[in-house]
Each structure stands twice: as structure tokens, then as C-alpha cells.
Amino acid sequence: MPMRNQTAHKSMDYPGNLFVVSAPSGAGKSSLVRALREFDARVSPSVSHTTRAPRGQEKHGREYYFVSDQEFDTMVSNNAFVEWANVHSRRYGTAKKALEERIQVGTDVLLEIDYQGALQVKEAFPNAVLIFILPPSWDELRARLENRGEDAPEVIELRLTNAAEEMAQVAKFDFVIINELFESALFDLKTIIHAQRLKYAAQRSRRAETFESLNISVPN
């Protein structure tokens, strides 16, 4: 598993929500997030910084912010990342300022990240909502990895070994979705997003004028 690094950050309440989705490889996280974004335009993906080169039709600022090693080093030195990781000799990081700016103006931001990064984001942003996607069984997880046809057998075994470590952390997450039937799992994900928007703190922040017009004061 990649080692992740973090910096301390004083949390604040924002009108936007920060959702963090984690899962072992093969659990269906990316497909669920992609379907959620097609359904819910208010959910905006987080754009990470990386030192790797663009692939295919990737564009700077859309899939990633592509930066040099020197630029990345400078951001690390300036504590610009809420977390960062070295993965396959390339570095990836989530900028604190970018997250703050977007949720501060009411944007609901969604991060797809491994469990180590998710827990570090939670430390920096205690109001972040952590969601873990589980497969229905080990046999199904193996079948999905094999059916993708992307990895050699030894890579699949490594992914399964990593999955055991990742799933052992599930109790530290706020919500758990078991992706047995895709449509049911997607419904669960939509429900979590919608329910979070209806919490008192979120409604009070997002619809402050309504509370004020109804003479509802903020409790001490």
C-alpha cells in the first residue's frame, strides 16, 4: 500500500459537503461515483495534483493538475496538501486550498481516495463524510478482478492482499455500502448524499436566510 503524508489543519464549518469514497480494487467504486455524478450535477469531483504525465485526452485542471517534481516539492514544503502519496514512483496530492475554496462557496466535493488518505482528510476536515464500498464476498471480488482482464494473476493476488488490509479499516468510516447489485448500491450512495444535505448544520448554513426569516436562532 502507498504511504500517505498529511499536514494538520484547523477545521471549519462550510456550506458545502466533503464526501470521501474508498474501496478495495474491484469493489466498483469508480463505476458508482461515475453514475452518481451523471445523476447529481451538484456533486463535483476533486482534482488532485500529480507529477505523472497526462495520458490520452487528459487535460490539466480537468482530470489532474499536472505539475513538475519541483512544483510538487514546493507544495509539500508549504504544507499545501491535506494528504499526498507516492504511487508507482509518481506522486499524487490533494490540495487543502482547493478543497476549502470549493466547499466554502457551497460546492459538494467528492474525493475518490484510498483508506489512508480518507482517514487523513477526516482529521483535517472532521465534517467530511467517509463512505466505504465493500464487495459482497471474496469470491465475487476475485471474479471481478479477473473479469476485468487488466492484471496478471500475481497482480490480482497482490490486490486481494491489499484488499484485506483496506477492508479491515471499514469501522472507521461513517457509511458502508455493499455493492452486490449495482442499482441498489447506487441508490444507497444517492441516499447518503441527500441525507447529508438535510442535516441541521448543512441546512442552517446553506439556507441561513430561511432560518432567519423564521426567527430560528442558532443554539449556543
Strand order of the largest sheet: 1-6-7-4-5
Number of DSSP E strands = 10
Morphology call: globular
The helicity comes to 40-55%
- How many H/I helices? 9
The CATH architecture of the domain at 17-46 and 107-213 would be 3-Layer(aba) Sandwich
Fold-level CATH name of the domain at 17-46 and 107-213: Rossmann fold
Strand content: 15-25%
Oligomer: single chain
Order of helices and strands: EEHEEEHEEHEHEHHEHHH
Terminal Cα span: 44 Å
**Structural class of the secondary elements?**
alpha/beta
* Name of the top-level CATH class of the domain at 17-46 and 107-213: Alpha Beta
CATH superfamily of the domain at 17-46 and 107-213: P-loop containing nucleotide triphosphate hydrolases
Description:
Belongs to the guanylate kinase family. It is an enzyme of class 2 (transferase). Residues 16-194 form the Guanylate kinase-like domain. The chain is an alpha/beta fold and 220 residues long. It has a domain at 17-46 and 107-213: P-loop containing nucleotide triphosphate hydrolases (Rossmann fold). 43% of the residues lie in helices and 20% in strands. It has 9 helices and 10 strands. The protein has helices spanning 29-39, 69-77, 96-104, 115-124, 138-148, 153-167, 182-197, 200-206, 208-213; strands at 4-6, 18-22, 43-45, 48-50, 64-66, 81-87, 90-95, 108-112, 129-134, 175-178. The strands form 2 sheets. A 5-stranded mixed β-sheet has the order 1-6-7-4-5. Strands 3-8-2-9-10 form a 5-stranded parallel β-sheet, sandwiched between helices. A hairpin with a 2-residue loop joins strand 6 (81-87) and strand 7 (90-95). Helix 1 (29-39) packs across helix 7 (182-197). It starts with a strand and ends in a 7-residue tail after the last helix. Residues 7-11 have low confidence and may be disordered.
